[in-house]
Amino acid sequence: MTDATSGSWTTNGPSSATPGAVTLTDLLRVPMHRLRLVGAAALVGLLAALGYVLLVPAALTANAVVAVRPVVTDAFTPSGAGADRAVNMNVESGIATGTEVVQRLANAAGGDPRDIRGALEVEVPTGGQILRFSYQAREAQRAVQGANLAAQTYLDVRRTMYEQQRAEMLRSYDVSITKVAAQQAALQKRASATKDPAAGNAVVAELAGINNQLTQLNSARTEIAAVDVNPGWVTQAAEKSLVASAGHRPLYLVAGLLGGALIGIVLAYAWESTDRRVRSVADGRDATGLPLLGTVRRPAFRGSPRAVDADVRYVAMAVAERVRQPARVALVSAREDATALTAGLAVALAADGRDVFVADDSGRTERLRATVLADRGRLPIDPSRPLVPKPRPAGSPPAAAAGEAAAPRRPSPHPAAARPSTDADATLTLPRVSSARPENGRVVDPDEVSVGVGSVRFGTWRQGADHGLVLFNAPPAESDERGVAVARQGSAVVVVERDRTRQSDLRRLVERLRAAGVTPLGFVLTRNGRA
Questions:
Q1: Which one-letter DSSP state was computed for residue 502?
Q2: Nearest partner of 495 among 350, 343, 300, judged by Cα
Q3: Which of 108, 370, 381, 455 has the fewest Cβ atoms within 10 Å of its own Cβ atom?
């Protein structure tokens, strides 16, 4: 594979001028990326709810039922089909929770009227003349006493109101009867004193009307006095055996968990608004304005990293398309470590027959070597090993014989034309044996790793000055400027780590490169963990 000339790639990649529709996935992306924060907030909410359930005693509820009856003149008269309309239950419910009832309960129980009002609840079933008094307390005995006292207090208050109304009506009738009786006495005196028969007949007729009116008033007063002002009865008194726990305590745990998760989601959006990370190719392209060289995905299963290796090879082809040897390519990043991607690109470029020199000035040479060896073992096809053995020429010795003839002779401990020394303390001089072993028909340098038909060498930036293709494993640009300085002598590839690289750091890095006169080839989007 030969190096192609650099194509006409623009520094500004395709920008999405028209914003796309926001989907449910876009809304869930931020909480998913801030999953630790959401989980921590949900855990705090769950612990708070659990502490409330364990430390705060449960509230107990006692219920008492009162049947409300209308006040009628004849208690034995059937009420008919509209019995539920005989009494306005909304008014009765207001009286049951009114100030007078609450004040009497506060005086009897010795508590704050506001607490009494919060603990007392009155329910009115639809279409019935029933009031259900519910009273909450920390103790069962107090809850029972509160419910029964509330029901009886309501009946007492309502009875007092009816009695006052009856007394007012009876007083009105008594006044009217007194006036009519005075008129009757006056007419009787006139009748006895009148001598004229005609005048006497008129007085007698008027006296008959007064007597009739007095009779009606006395009859109406008798009916009012006979009215039963009983407002109702307690049909079900509160008992300890009927006391139930107020509310469902396990629901507090669910509410605490969901509430904490909701708070965590809000905090995740707030944090994301202040600390924007690169989440996709579009974010990287908007932050850098550079073309995409490729994406290197994280393998779904650690046992099968072939998808990642294939992505690295695609990135290597994109880099090779844009450079011409001799080339100096610096892999720069904002705060991340690009060692794994540098080693992967070196293996992918060397597998096609290039001699790649990997330079590093930050003490990561051994990591680069180990990663290159690991990536070399996962090459899908090794061009250095032919699949079919070459035919042997006619008349050539067998492989075993040739191997015996080519076997090197062990060096003698005695130099040629020298006699053995008889001195026991004499020092023997052994010839130096080279540690380089032939591989693929050539001698391999100790600092060189053969990859396919190419090779990868390691060293510092100064040591790679005479090599045709140099990959510089630059340190993070936020703390070290050597990556930008090396990129001035060649080109640069910006390494962006998804979900980790901040957009502000990435913009600052690209601005520094352009301010230094460097035109980056593009950017590579990687995932967390391995490149």
A1: B
A2: 343
A3: 381
Residue 330, strand partner residues: 472, 492
Residue 301: per-residue pLDDT: 57
pLDDT at 297 over 90: no
Are 444 and 350 in contact by the 8 Å Cβ rule? The answer is no
Residue 315 phi/psi, 5-degree rounding, is -65, -40
pLDDT, one tens digit per residue, over 217-235 is 888 888 888 888 888 889 8
- Tens digits of per-residue pLDDT, 460-496? 888 877 888 899 988 998 888 888 988 888 889 999 9
Map tokens 């020298």 to a residue: 418
- The 3 state secondary structure assigned to 182-195 is HHHHHHHHHHHHCC
- Asked whether 285 and 494 are in contact (CB, 8 A), the reply is no
CA distance 455 to 450: 4
> Are 11 and 519 a contacting pair, CB within 8 Å?
yes
Closest residue by Cα to residue 438 from 450, 426, 422: 450
Phi, psi of 205 (to 5 degrees): -65, -40
* Gap between the Cα atoms of 292 and 315, Å rounded: 9
Does the global pTM surpass 0.85?
Answer: no
Give pLDDT, residue 300. Answer: 61
Q: Do residues 68 and 87 touch, judged by C-beta distance below 8 A? A: yes
Crossing angle of helices 197-225/140-193, nearest 10°?
Answer: 170
* Predicted pLDDT of residue 443: 46
CA distance 55 to 451: 67
Tokens of 214: 């007095």
- C-alpha 385 chain-centroid distance: 53
Q: What is the DSSP letter of 523?
A: E
**C-beta separation of 316 from 345 below 8 A:** yes
Please give the helix or strand (H or E) that residue 455 lies within, else none: strand 454-459
177: nearest Cα among 226, 223, 210: 210
Backbone torsions φ then ψ of 239, nearest 5 degrees:
-135, 160
List pLDDT tens digits, range 198-208: 887 888 888 88
Pairing outcome for strands 130-137 and 60-68:
antiparallel
User: Residue 500: what pLDDT?
Assistant: 86
What span, in angstroms and rounded, lies between the C-alpha atoms of 375 and 323? 23
For residue 14, what is the DSSP state? -
Amino acid 299: pLDDT: 66
Place of tokens 């502490």: 51
State both tokens at 426: 């004499």
Cβ–Cβ < 8 Å for 18, 241:
no
C-alpha separations of 177 from 170, 188, 190 in Å: 10, 16, 20
Q: Please report, to the nearest 10 degrees, the dihedral formed by the alpha carbons of residues 426, 431, 434, 440 taken in order.
A: -140
Instruction: With a cut of 90, say whether residue 258 has pLDDT above it.
Output: yes
What length does the chain have?
531
Q: Do residues 135 and 152 lie in contact, with contact meaning Cβ atoms separated by under 8 Å? A: no
* Percent of the chain whose predicted confidence (pLDDT) is above 70: 77
DSSP designation for 330: E
Buried b (16+ CB within 10 A) or exposed e, 133-146: bbbbbeebebbbbb
